[in-house]
Amino acid sequence: MDRWQTMRVFAKVAETGSFAQTARLLHMSPPAVTRAVAALEETIGARLLIRTTRSVKLTEAGSRYYEDCRRILADIAEAESAAAGSNATPSGTLAVTASVLFGKMHVLPIVTHYLDTYPTMSARTLFVDRPVNIVEEGIDVAIRIGRLTDSGLTAARVGSVRHVICGAPAYFARHGVPTTPADLKRHRIAVSTGAWASPEWRFAGNERVVVHPTLQSNTNEVPIAAARSGWGLTRVLHYQIGPDLLEGRLRIVLDEYEEAPIPVHVLYPEGRRAPAKVRTFVDLAVSQLRANRTLN
């Protein structure tokens, strides 16, 4: 019997306190269990178990060795699980969450690409502008914008986004361009009342300006549309207006006063032991989001 197997037998005896029960659980004969433990003790050169007619107890050396065995066996199981997970074919339903606009613009194309790559898979998306508890809501992968707390999840950073102030060229032609954050008090402001909403806009150097929006909406699309039409200014995450910037419909101002960028991460539980459907999607999402020029 090899060393790994004798360690497994010894650990099971230590856990059950019984040679007979260990034999039943491992589908071995009681004499084979006894021989395995005896061989291990002989190899180590120390007594690991104290046997009586009624009980089996660990010696001091046996207690230390059991803790080492348990750690080693767990590492072996994790390595095997990781190898199986990386080589297995993805199956089942993948659940992915992100904020609404980010999900529509950047996550949905990755999900559909993934489904094309693995046609036996199905997917469920939860695009909402609120924090999502991955475990409680049955989510496999989350793409999260913001600084992370210590959640115990595995995180892969894929880029960053900026809080920017923007308006249409036509608006600036009529009302002028703000050159300092304090100038915003003289401009019409449209805002979203969603997750990023705050009447206090922060800038580099801990500068803060309290704005008094004339137009408020529960969605990001409305203040962006108002800014695009030339009605006023709004503050958004820069990826949300990527196409408008490229085509000249919106222009960023006060960029020299911006706070540090906000990180974007792909989050998932279980780390290396994640099932194949999670590992393959994470690999794809990380690769595509890191290549996305609007996130860098």
- Supply the number of helical segments: 9
Percent of residues in helical segments? 25-40%
Instruction: Give the count of structural domains.
Output: 3
CATH topology of the largest domain: D-Maltodextrin-Binding Protein, domain 2
Q: What letter string, H or E per element, gives the SSE order?
A: HHHEEHEHEEEEHEEEEHEHEEH
Radius of gyration, whole Å: 29 Å
Helix/strand-derived category reads: alpha/beta
CATH first level of the largest domain: Alpha Beta
Average the pLDDT over all residues and give the rounded result: 90
- Which strands sit side by side, in order, in the main sheet? 4-3-5-14-6
Find the count of extended strands (DSSP E, 2+ residues).
14
GO molecular function: DNA-binding transcription factor activity; sequence-specific DNA binding
Domain HTH lysR-type: 1-59
Family: Belongs to the LysR transcriptional regulatory family.
Protein name: DNA-binding transcriptional regulator, LysR family
